[in-house]
From TrEMBL:
This is Transport permease protein. The keyword Transport applies. InterPro entries: ABC2_TM (IPR013525), ABC2_TM_bact-type (IPR047817), ABC_2_transport (IPR000412), Nod_factor_ABC_transporter (IPR051784). Keywords: Antibiotic resistance, Cell membrane, Membrane, Transmembrane, Transmembrane helix, Transport. Belongs to the ABC-2 integral membrane protein family. It comes from the Bacteria. Residues 41-275 form the ABC transmembrane type-2 domain. It is a multi-pass membrane protein. The keyword Iron-sulfur does not apply. The chain crosses the membrane at residues 41-61, 73-90, 132-150, 156-181, 193-214, 249-272.
Amino acid sequence: MTTTRSPIAAAADLRDRRPNALREGLLIAGRDALHQIREPWGIVFGLAFNIMLILMFGFLFGGAIELPGGGDYIAYLLPGMFALTMLFGLESTMTAMAEDAKRGITDRFRSLPITSASVALGRAIADLGSSALSLAVLMLGGLLIGWHPTTGPAEITVAVVLLLWLRFGLLWLGIFLGLTFRGTGATTAVQVLVWPIGFLSTVFVSAETMPGWLGVIAEWNPVSATATAARELFGNPTGATSGWLAENAVVAASVWPLVITGVFLPLAATAYRRLRR
């Protein structure tokens, strides 16, 4: 005997089969997270490197660095390092996307009835999760060496959200580069470029101690905006006593990642659709 399904049930079945970028992205993020768990050394060495930078600048050079407006250098340094950590590891995202494309894994995903944004979104979610873990470890390490926030839970939560928001925007840059440039030379180039971008900021020193033109460049760095906003929200010394960034750091830290995402998310989606082995 043949059973006839009602139109409502059929429509519901069709809705279940429709591509869902978020659901598919979460599934792919689970796959990427398993790879990170099986090969955790990249995250471990990245954390060790960041901790080394904190100890070196905080205890080796920190005694010689004076902040405009005064304040403890460790309290100034730690939020900056949290922001810098959101920039470091960008080449890992790039490499992972490039390797999946080279090995044909991306082509297998392309053959499935899923949205074109799902693969990139899955990588972004997985990397954002590992970044959140790294940030938590660094914050715990900061507490152990004397750093502490002086504001309430709401401000601290906003600071953490802004830090991860910066990471989210930068991930789309890494995904776009990974889908566009797949040679080892491209990865090396990104690793080299990350350093001047990270250091030409207010992570380690205040922009007010730099030559005028260099200070302006440092203030307009997205990493500087997030670092200054995090310091302000954590209640730490900002090293900014005047200027636009001193008064609008939270706004700048909110807008910069939005701009980066708005530029590189569509570019990443286009690069994925045009991808060929």
